[in-house]
Write a structure and sequence with these properties.
single chain; alpha/beta; Immunoglobulin-like; Rossmann fold; 8-stranded mixed beta sheet
């Protein structure tokens, strides 16, 4: 998906879209996670007011227009940002891609654990009317636990990565309410949480412009909410998908040293190879790898050796919960 959407993104970025009216801007909150002593929080500030809400009855043309506006964004550079969390304030400023990021280290007063509410506001004179944004940062305690790291395309959403024409069509002509969930995914992931998973991280090579669409899809499908880590085409390499994803997962493993992980992906791209690299680096912390077999992909036993392979999650909706319970019973 990454290569195709990268080309689409570049195409849209040079199209003569009209500027949003009334000089309005919007703050987006992306990944937010950490421990009581340190956390990472990131988002963007863009022109406009965002796209319309997902609607299962929306037509193809309207979806294409919304997709254009999603992939071609006008970033607001140099905007001061203030984040309030647990009665404390942290400051940042947007870069050339409109991205703001706070990476707090060694907090003198630890944060409480759980999904902590946050408020993000623009500071200083921006020339735009920008409303405050509200979200959460997921703070994981220091006690040992298990979490899930999952891919998105063809792992929880039917994207058709191996069929590039179908992939482009689905990306451009469907909104979050029309996207298809992989059969049984919602139940399997919810059962993982019920079995004691501390959280779910969604790590994908899709562009960060799709963050709101993915967030809405997860909400509609009643998937567990969690940090969504996506690619910044202005900073991350466009084609080095394996390196990018290994780096993102390694970052999580290092930031959250007391958590072990189940890695969930699909055979359509490079998830088996990526997860094998991670498991070799952290053999005691990867408790299982679950791969969804995708049609027209390499599903050979040699490639998926040592992994739990399935066509979808309906055959064993407890597949993730069983891995968690197996560890907890030791």
């Amino acid at each position: 998906m990454l290569k195709i959407l990268g080309v689409v993104f570049v195409m849209f970025s040079v199209l003569p879209f009209a500027a949003r009216a009334d000089h309005r801007g919007i703050i987006l909150i992306h990944a937010g996670y950490g421990t009581p002593g340190k956390f990472v929080l990131q988002g963007r500030v863009l022109e406009g007011e965002g796209i319309r809400a997902a609607d299962k009855d929306l037509g193809r043309f309207a979806n294409v227009v919304d997709s254009f506006n999603t992939l071609e964004t006008d970033e607001l550079k140099g905007v001061g940002v203030e984040v309030e969390i647990d009665g404390r304030s942290f400051a940042s400023r947007t870069d050339d891609d409109g991205v703001w990021r706070i990476e707090s280290q060694d907090l003198l007063s630890p944060l409480p654990t759980g999904a902590l509410p946050i408020t993000v506001r623009a500071t200083g004179e921006t020339g735009y009317v920008i409303a405050d944004a509200h979200g959460v940062v997921h703070i994981f305690g220091d006690e040992p636990g298990i979490a899930v790291i999952s891919d998105f395309d063809d792992t929880v959403a039917n994207s058709g990565v191996t069929d590039k024409k179908r992939l482009i069509a689905r990306t451009l002509t469907k909104n979050a309410a029309q996207m298809e969930v992989v059969a049984g995914a919602s139940v399997a992931f919810r059962h993982a949480m019920q079995a004691g998973a501390r959280g779910v991280f969604y790590v994908s090579g899709s562009p960060q412009n799709l963050h709101e669409r993915i967030t809405e899809f997860l909400r509609i499908q009643q998937m567990p909410p969690g940090p969504i880590l996506l690619k910044n085409f202005g900073e991350d390499p466009l084609t080095k998908h394996v390196e990018y994803k290994v780096e993102r997962i390694t970052h999580l493993m290092n930031l959250l040293p007391n958590l072990s992980f189940i890695l969930v992906g699909d055979s359509g791209e490079k998830d088996p190879e990526i997860y094998r690299i991670v498991a070799e680096r952290y053999p005691r912390r990867v408790i299982g790898i679950v791969i969804r077999r995708v049609n027209d992909a390499d599903n050979t036993d040699s490639r998926l050796f040592g992994m739990t392979a399935l066509d979808d999650y309906t055959g064993d909706p407890e597949v993730l919960a069983k891995l968690i319970n197996k560890v907890r019973m030791k």
